[in-house]
Amino acid sequence: MPALSSLITDETPDLAIQIRRLEIIMEALRDPETGCPWDIAQTFATIAPYTIEEGYEVADAIAQENWGELRGELGDLLFQTVFHAQMAREAGHFTLTDVVKAIADKMVFRHPHVFGDQSNAKSPEQQVKDWETIKARERAGKAQKGVLDGVALGLPALLRAAKLQNRAARVGFDWPEVAQVVDKLAEEVGELVEARDTLTPDDLEEEFGDLLFAMANIGRHLGLDPEGALRRANDKFTRRFAYIEAGLSARGKSPEQSDLAEMDALWNEIRQAEKAAKG
């Protein structure tokens, strides 16, 4: 390691140098004799939740348009890639170089209209069709024969629902009109309401899941991202509840010392104010 110590502290603003620097730092952290005990103890499974968390933090920085924060969060996400690649190298699976080469090769292969001899004078819709055709060939090479194969199990449930629905729709398994999806939603709501007192908890959860799946389908038909829409609703609820807390605080109260009527009145205040601000 002494021969590499200068690289560990090298701040030269060069991409290749800094990527290699990060790789060397990760190697040092995982060194069985001199590394960090916590880093040494980690596995793919224990690190995976941190990888997912970092992805969400990237999305959060983008949502806030906090570009300085985004730089740091992207670095954290990159470190997760380096961490997994280091563990894979130790196990003899692959290296960071393999990871970078694989994604570069994939992007070139999937963009023949940019890097090959195909014309790029295509509509976005045609490019999506071409993209899916290429991905289908890739899945065939991986022995992924089913239309839904390869949709990651670890995706947020609403996002995965939309992706599953998109895959099925591309081979014709889809409602042709959004009105039919709305009817399906009403059907699912009715089934849930009618059976809520008679179903077992497991059956009730299944019915509720069907309802959420139908909601995701409506969003897809309307050209909306269900995950993004729910995230926006969460943000709105957080913002409005903060207004309630501030209003109660001005009256010398906490939410626990209030009641539903008072809090609902404050909720309506901020709702009307936001509506007026939109014009």
Molecular structure report:
By secondary structure, the protein is mainly α. The chain folds into four domains: 2-109, Helix Hairpins; 111-145; 146-224, Orthogonal Bundle (Helix Hairpins); 228-277. The chain contains 13 helices and no strands. It is globular. The mean pLDDT is 91.
Highlighted features:
279 residues, mainly alpha, Helix Hairpins, 13 helices, globular, hydrolase, MazG-like_dom, NTP-PPase_MazG-like_N, Nucleoside triphosphate pyrophosphohydrolase, NTP_PyrPHydrolase_MazG
Calculate Rg over CA atoms.
25 Å
CATH architecture of the largest domain: Orthogonal Bundle
**Overall form:** globular
* Major sheet characteristics: none
Class by helix and strand content? mainly alpha
Strand content: under 5%
SSE pattern, N- to C-terminal: HHHHHHHHHHHHH
**Helix fraction bin:** over 70%
State the CATH superfamily name of the largest domain: MazG-like
Total domain modules = 4
Instruction: Count helical runs.
Output: 13
For the record, the CATH class of the largest domain is Mainly Alpha
- Low-pLDDT parts are none
Q: Using DSSP, what is the number of strands?
A: 0
Termini gap:
64 Å
Assign the CATH topology of the largest domain: Helix Hairpins
